[in-house]
Amino acid sequence: MCVFEFGLACGHLVTAVMTGWYPEVVSCCDRLGGTVLRGLYVPYAAEVDYVNMLSERYEYRPTGTRGVPVQIIGRRSRTDEPYQPPFRCHYTNAGRFPARVGATWSLDGSVPTPGTS
Known about the structure:
Blueprint: E1 2-8, E2 12-18, E3 25-27, E4 34-37, E5 40-43, E6 45-56, E7 71-77, E8 104-106
Parallel strand pairs: 4-8
Antiparallel strand pairs: 1-2, 1-6, 2-7, 3-6, 4-5
């Protein structure tokens, strides 16, 4: 069981719990868009920019045991948000924004029901 901190392409830092190696993409938020099918909203996955392992614990698992899917336990804005310094001699930072921003697509014409994201 490992706890990772992921820097995602959508601009968030996510703390996630999982078993095994970290994934290449993680569904985080609706900033990149998503899909709706039968009232269930699923956000598009964001690429993992960097990984920081916070903790790991080894435990015995019988052969053939399925791994637990990624469980997001925390999300916060990244530290490279736009920044305007109080003094002119300091550097400004335009921040890092995702390469793409998307909209939600409904595959069957339904709308997401509250609390399904």
